[in-house]
Design goal:
A hairpin with a 6-residue loop joins β3 and β4. It contains four helices and twelve strands, in the order ββββαβαββαβαββββ. The strands form three sheets. Strands 3, 4, 5, 6, 7 and 8 form a six-stranded mixed beta sheet that branches. The chain has a four-stranded mixed beta sheet with strand order 1-10-9-2. Strands 11-12 form a two-stranded antiparallel sheet. By secondary structure, the protein is α+β, with helices and mostly antiparallel strands.
Length: 216
């Protein structure tokens, strides 16, 4: 008898700006551990990293919450395990230290009740996911999507979050591949500064080591 299917995460391509036009949805780029989670009626929930490393023991609170959040249905989820700081913002530093409130922010469902969903368009997979995560669990949460990417990016910059991911609504899930159907844009914080001078460097950068900047 064949064992359970294994999945590697579908990856996003870095971009300088968000795409425009119809057929895109946008969500926060979470700062945590990309995690594939499997929950089943008969077995113990398991968590694995994007490279297949076991994370079940490390994030035991997520594994414990999965059956409750998914109404004990068989499913494979894709999301990000994050540690929240005092302002409820993901902090990778806290996650590495084993501190903060740990949550699993889910943005895709790859398999449901033994049926692979990879060939379905993202919009349909998201609809299945929203129906699945009906318990509104404190640990396992739905990662919300938005239609206005630029407005979301403004909020992300203001909240000092990592960035925004844009996804094609008609795209299928391609495990282990980096696709142009998923684009990630980092939040860039801008500020007007005055160039006050420069400092001589060393070696190849002897003529100009660094600039001295000042705020007005």
């Amino acid at each position: 008898m064949a064992g359970p299917r294994t999945y590697l995460p579908m990856l996003a391509t870095a971009a300088e700006s968000l795409p425009t036009g119809d057929g895109w949805v946008f969500e926060v780029k979470w700062d945590g551990f990309r995690t594939i989670a499997r929950s089943s009626r008969d077995g113990r929930p398991t968590l694995s990293s994007r490279r297949g490393q076991h994370l079940t023991e490390r994030f035991a609170e997520v594994a414990t919450a999965l059956p409750r959040a998914t109404a004990n249905r068989d499913c494979v989820l894709d999301g990000e395990v994050c540690a929240l700081d005092a302002r409820a913002r993901p902090s990778f530093s806290l996650l590495q230290q084993g501190r903060g409130r740990v949550v699993y922010l889910v943005f895709d469902v790859l398999e449901l009740d033994g049926e692979p969903l990879l060939a379905l368009p993202l919009a349909e997979r998201r609809a299945r996911l929203q129906e699945l995560l009906t318990a509104h669990d404190d640990v396992v949460r739905l990662s919300e999507t938005f239609d206005d990417g630029e407005a979301l990016l403004d909020v992300v910059v203001a909240q000092e979050l990592e960035g925004v991911v844009a996804k094609r609504t008609h795209s299928r899930y391609r495990p282990g591949t980096r696709s142009r159907h998923r684009l990630k844009v980092k939040a860039r914080r801008r500020e007007d500064l005055v160039v006050a001078g420069w400092v001589r460097g060393d070696g190849a950068r002897e003529r100009l080591g660094s600039l001295v900047l000042a705020r007005r």
